[in-house]
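HOLO CASE FILE
Compound: NDP
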Amino acid sequence: MQVEYTKMFIDGSWCDSDSGETFENINAANGETIARIPLAGHSDVDRAVQAAARAQREWARWTPAERGRVLRRAAQLLRENVEEIARLESLDTGRPIQETPEADVESGAACLEYFGGIAAGIEGEYGDLSRAFYYTRREPLGVCAGIGAWNYPLQIACWKSAPALATGNAMVFKPAELTPLTATRLAAIYREAGLPDGLFNVVHGFAETGQAMTEHHGVAKVSFTGEAGTGKKVMGSAAGTLKQVTMELGGKSPLVIFADANIDEAVSAAMMANFYSQGEICTNGTRVFVDASIEEEFLERLRQRTEKLKLGDPMNPDTQVGPLISKEHMEVVLGYMEDGKASSARLVTGGERATGGELDKGAWVLPTIFAGCSDDMEIVREEIFGPVMSVLTFDDEDEVLRRANDTEYGLAAGLFTRDLTRAHRVAAALQAGVVWVNSYNVTPIEMPFGGVKGSGIGRENGHAAIEFYTQRKSVYVELEGVDCAYD
Ligand code: NDP
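Model generated. Tokens follow.
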């Protein structure tokens, strides 16, 4: 597949880096080079920030309705190009073409449409003080830096840029170096939709490029998606200039299945929560707690359906499981599988690399289930970011809540029960930013998204996102003259 959008995009122009340095973008399915990508250094980041600052001053003067119109036009363009962009995303991430039209392109479009729609409805407050009054204005922050992970590159670029732009900010975005293509494609979409030059810039590179963004004096806010450890570094470096931060980090989320659950539904959810996108999803419910009385039935149905999953070429519409993002990441995931096999957990299915034919060229692993797991095992405590499910059993609600919450993370959680009061009681008690009841991993753009504890700070999506891309200014207006203490 010929790939077009491989440059950086700064101030409305496609460009190489000042140094002329590049890095390789590799296809995880066959190890071939897709393209060489320019590597942004400090001067490129600086150029992007300067351009963004210039453009933002003008953009903030547009009416919110005018800004919203551009975003909605961009949403339309994403939809008109869904097939091409979905193929690009599948090529870059290895995620099956079954997934990317809906989970990436349509969800990105929905995000642009949503923030394009609510832009004109953002309001301040008014307060009557009798001899005076005050009102608050919601003002943009200025230049926002967006730094993305490699699992959902287009969606992450949309989730960050749409609320930023809707509220009058500009953005400099760095996709993960493993997946540079679709954020760059988004820049072309924005341009075609009429977004003025400089408002959405894409720079490419590794940690050093990200750090140049987080340290830059001209950047007011950093919205970061990635590992918890990297998030802490980013926050540390943003502290030097007291930038605002949004942190969307990792997780080790619990999915709790009570004895009265619809077992087929719970199995579906557990599979979606562990094997969709090869398990490379931050919210995945990788600790599946099953009531001991239904464990056997649950595991048998789960094993049967998991073993039917079709691995293969991400571009084949029948493929359900593609390769992991890279050979290096595959080694990490295989390492966890070995840890699981060496522990007292029982391997139900999978547990190794998937090989044979074309699979030998890429980074495929078998969807894997361990049962009989205990809370202290490495596979149960650490984020694996691959298709590895740990099944644990429990006997009562208090016990499972204590164990489900016994993690440094708090991104998401799920529960399956037909008992209405239990559902709400447990949802309230789970320490997580998002809880799904009788479902898993559904993230409508209307619903705030983000983690608690070690999984993050701030929220994306929904009206909540507006809070994190604006600052309040209070304006006090005197009606009766200055109450002066001096003659
Ligand atoms: P990383 O933390 O490795 O990288 C994330 C981004 O940060 C990349 O663009 C990376 O660049 C960049 N980066 C790395 N070091 C620095 C630094 N010192 N300063 C600034 N930027 C830096 O995460 P992954 O890309 O490996 O993504 C997987 C992780 O992301 C998982 O933990 C997953 O749970 C989490 N995630 C969280 C989501 C959420 O919404 N909560 C959603 C999706 C993923 P480079 O490209 O060179 O690596």
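CASE NOTES: The pocket of NDP is lined by residues 147-151, 174, 176-177, 206-207, 210-211, 214, 225-227, 230, 233-234, 248-251, 282, 383, 385, 411, 451, 456 (CB under 6 Å). DSSP finds 15 helices and 20 strands in the chain.
CLOSED: yes
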